Amino acid sequence: MNTRPVIAFLTGGYSGEAEISYKSALTIEKNVDTDKFDVYQIDIRPDGWWYKTAAGVEIAIDKNDFTIPLETKRIHFDAVLIGIHGTPGEDGKLQGYFDMLGIPYTSCDAATSALTFNKRYTVAVAAFAGIKVARSLHLFKDRSMAPASIAAHLQMPVFVKPNNGGSSIGMSKVTDPGDLANALEKAFREDEQVLVEEFISGREFTIGVFRQKGEIVTLPFTEVITKKEFFDFEAKYEGLSEEITPAQVDEDVAVKIRSAARRVYEVFNCRGIIRIDFIYNELEAEPYMLEINTVPGQSEASIVPQQVRAMGWTLRDFYSALIEEALTVK
Which keywords does this chain's UniProt record carry (predicted)? Predict the structure, then answer.
């Protein structure tokens, strides 16, 4: 009798980040331990949720109980491995659905996912908990603020970015107040809400954090040196950045980054693997948190796989640890 846990691996999504999900899926698919787990890949798309059989037939998932109604049997799942960037995998929607069904999953819970998907609410909670963040303004499409007022409230340069989502789509760095209007228009094309945030000068670091057997584990972190004005979509996915893993830093800096990362993981009650972006302000000798990614990329170009290898683990070990941790959640 087969006693291997049955795992649903979710890819796709409803946003422009679906293309990143499919890149991540190629890596995850290759490295999930199929000796330990029975894995079924499910493609969540605007036209439905689908499982493709070996014969290439797409079968619609029964959303009433999240099962696959095969001709010979109905597949039920012990846990879900979420590989969807953007909505509905990173913003809490699927997490809430699985909570109602009582099926555990590998990501943060619904509340944390929804909160961290909103960049403004994330920095507000972080600031409340004493974690250093940049000063910012939260704008809404139907009641935005005039560029002159923004320039009066915040010191240039600023980042203008969609408040929800990731992959830096729609993001701009603005050094001249005269360029604010165009940057706002670009960001509002991606989202109804926009975050305008003061630029913090310093080195950029990003660190993967996960929980294994109840312990918070920080991965060897990465310094990101971009060839562009900032770490945008092209820099992330089209090779226009240099990523040094592990980062070459003094140990006192490393201790501060790791400590801040653990603090963020605890404050936001995170689960599974997250990736936190920091700017290390050398004048203050303090890390400033930029944002939290609760479903970080897993493609060949992505940072978390680099960090896992730098720790001396294989991706197979890593994905097994994430799934096994999820299976312990009741």
Answer: ATP-binding, Cell shape, Cell wall biogenesis/degradation, Cytoplasm, Ligase, Nucleotide-binding, Peptidoglycan synthesis
